[in-house]
Amino acid sequence: MVPDTTSTRRHVLRTAGSALALAALAGCTADEADPATDADDAESADDGDAAADGDDTDAGEESEPRSLELLVESSVDHHHACLHARFDERVALETGGSTDAVPTVEETHEIWEATYVGEAGYVTFDAAAHEHEGPFVFYTAFGSAHPVEGTELERGSVDDADCDELDAYVEVEPTDGRITVEVRADT
Question: Are 127 and 178 spatial neighbours (Cβ–Cβ below 8 Å)?
Answer without folding.
Answer: yes
